[in-house]
Write a structure and sequence with these properties.
The chain is an alpha/beta fold. It is built from 14 helices and 12 strands. It has helices at about 20-35, 50-65, 75-90, 105-110, 110-125, 135-140, 185-195, 215-220, 235-240, 260-270, 280-285, 300-310, 310-325, 330-345, and strands at about 5-10, 40, 65-70, 95, 125-130, 145-150, 170-175, 200-205, 225-230, 245-250, 270-275, 290-295. The strands form 2 sheets. A 6-stranded parallel β-sheet has the order 2-1-3-4-5-6, with helices on both faces. Helix 7 (about 185-195) packs across helix 12. The chain is elongated and about 65 Å long.
Length: about 350
């Protein structure tokens, strides 16, 4: 394959494990399975090496002319306008996969002159693929119409949940460990639940926010029913979730889009409790394929866990319906769509069908 057919892929790429980083690793692997050769530019820690980072971005973007930006909030307000300038000067084409669910709100909060530039930059992109329908509609309200819903993708590894007949029950939290993800609330709920059910174990997986690390260990100190299990590898997540009795994500994070762990959970079918956020009800239908609770409520966490663990029928119902949701998250289906759009917008690529 000649250099001119390579695509520049810019964004955070795991390891280390982050939500956007894992998503991008899945996208990159699928692109490669479909015959697309990539120049990977990892934006993790880009601010610490800012001049070198932008030199590499600009050099490769000009050389290869085709860029996929799959970036988080910190990077997009710089990189997207940069792509707009490179498009004008060097005919660089670009597509966007913004992480999170609040890009439209971020634009509305920007200074008027920058807001105008940013909207122009978004409109000039070949396509924008967003993780939620609500974000798609929010961007269209800003007259940005080259936008399409494409949920946070993963690959199905075929680990499936089954009801556990034993008395000991494992409730799993798997996400970044910080207060905004509801960790403190879940620990408070665990201490209430254990007073009436000694067979519960609460297992926490994920990277710990350094600012929260000391407090987290203090909160779980001397408990025998709360255990920190470390950081799961991306290819272990579905297996871990399939072995849980319940998965819970009581998130309060304001920028929640479609959590990748929700996607992983759907493949396994583990019964799930999740707090309400902007796009939650696009994916979870309360009492049908999951339980939705109000963010910030310890009582709702306690009541929902107690109720589910006392109803095998409800657990099996949620699991069966949750697995049906997973079909729309298949990463290879989405990559095929992106490649099709690249051809549609005259990108010079060489894929497995070219």
């Amino acid at each position: 394959m000649t250099d001119k057919y390579k695509i520049v892929f810019i964004g955070p790429i795991s390891p280390p494990v982050t939500g956007p980083g894992v998503k991008n690793k899945e996208l990159i692997d699928s692109f490669k399975r479909h015959g697309i050769e990539l120049i990977e530019i990892n934006s993790l820690g880009w601010i610490k090496k800012i001049f070198n980072f932008f030199f590499i971005v600009i050099k490769n973007s000009i050389k290869y002319k085709h860029v996929v930006l799959s970036i988080s909030k910190k990077g997009r307000f710089t990189l997207i306008p940069l792509m707009y300038i490179l498009n004008i000067l060097f005919d660089v084409k670009y597509m966007l996969l913004p992480a999170g669910g609040n890009l439209d709100k971020e634009i509305n909060k920007a200074l008027p002159i920058y807001k105008l530039l940013f909207i122009k930059s978004l409109k000039k992109s070949s396509k924008i693929y967003v993780e939620s329908k609500s974000l798609r509609d929010g961007l269209k309200n800003l007259k940005i119409n080259n936008v399409e819903y494409m949920p946070n993708p993963r690959r199905n590894l075929n680990f499936k949940w089954k009801y556990n007949q034993s008395k000991e029950k494992h409730i799993i939290f798997l996400s970044k460990i910080k207060p905004e993800k509801g960790v403190v609330l879940l620990i408070e709920a665990a201490k209430i639940l254990i007073s009436t059910n000694k067979h519960l174990k609460f297992l926490f997986y994920g990277p710990i926010d350094p600012l929260f690390e000391d407090k987290f260990y203090l909160l779980i100190k001397e408990t025998t029913f709360i255990h920190y299990q470390g950081i799961s590898k991306p290819d272990q997540v579905q297996e871990i979730l399939s072995k849980a009795d319940l998965f819970i994500l009581p998130t309060m994070w304001k920028n929640e889009g479609l959590p990748g762990v929700l996607v992983e959970a759907s493949f396994s079918g583990v019964p799930m409790i999740i707090s309400r956020f902007r796009a939650s009800e696009e994916f979870i239908e309360n009492e049908i394929n999951g339980i939705i609770i109000e963010p910030g409520s310890v009582d709702e966490i306690v009541n929902s866990i107690s109720r589910l663990l006392n109803s095998e029928n409800l657990l099996n119902k949620l699991s069966n319906n949750f697995k049906k949701l997973s079909a729309e998250f298949d990463v290879d289906i989405h990559i095929k769509k992106i490649i099709s759009d690249m051809h549609k917008y005259d990108w010079k690529i060489n894929d497995e069908k070219s």
